Amino acid sequence: MYVPKRVVTNDDLAQTLDTSDEWIRSRTGIARRHIAGEHESSAQMAIEAAQAALQVADANPREISLIVVGTTTPDYVFPSTACQVQNALGAVHAGAFDLSAACSGFVYALSTAHQAIASGEHDLVLVIGVDTLSRRLNWQDRGTCVLFGDGAGAVLLRAAEGPSGVLATVLGADGSGGDVLIIPASGCARSLTPEALAENLHTIHMNGQEVYRFATRVLASATEQVVKKAGLTMDEVDVIVPHQANLRIVETAAKRLKMPMERFVTNLDEYGNTSAGSIPIALCEAIAQGRIKPGSNIVMVGFGAGLTW
Ligand code: UT7
Prior knowledge:
This protein is of the alpha/beta class. It has 10 helices and 10 strands. The model has no long low-confidence stretch (mean pLDDT about 95).
């Protein structure tokens, strides 16, 4: 994983915004977030995380045959972030592409990588979730800017026999909810005109309560579905690594699932919502803390714009 060095606390935000540490903490569980500096970007963070993953896996980048990067904040429209990673690593035998599923980007990318391996087509696949949403925030909008941070996480999947690895995946989408979490301008529909810039249409627009309702519903239902599909019971799940959007969303889902909060990995206090980076960052930390070990049954569950889950 990689997060920018620069830390912005709730108190820092309260200096320029009508908000408070108390409000942000009690409504979201967030205390700090890491924000990319001028020379940091999604590609740079993705490369750092990928290099760390290669080191942990003791793998050679020349062995990688596919790179999938879940991101909605690529450095450029093209070339893709994945191609920048491919070049920086010297992954000369890899195909590479970005995948757009907002905060669900990592779980979508992981599922895609799993299928690529299961088909027999690929042996070693690099999967990255990364976002630099700080560049897409309206820093005057207290309803959104306090929620997000920047960061990247990476995993390597290697083909292997046996019951280990990805046991089951469930992907979902509901495009009818596209407008509840949207960046209205800078795509083909609405160009980045001076007027659009002045209206901050290149930044995140969100109906927080709608997203909240959607998130608590799908976090619980997608978890139940995938556990069932894997042939397991909820009691056999050791750890759940949910998308880190709001601690209250995780707590509500935990209640619905009748699972104790101790089984959920949360790190919102330190990073806020890092979008596609959030699940792999939480995964890395849980492994480092010894909460996930070989043989653990884990569920990774994301949700985000699209809507996707
Ligand atoms: O990856 C998915 C990304 N998005 C999410 O996960 C967002 C999901 N939604 C949420 O997490 C919550 O809806 C929020 C944290 C965004 C908002 O919490 P809420 O409890 O739903 O608050 P609200 O929108 O109902 O607003 C309550 C009040 C409003 O003031 P009035 O109209 O009651 O006077 C807001 O203006 O809180 C105000 N408010 C704030 N006050 C201080 C909104 N943001 C802030 C803030 N500081 N940062």
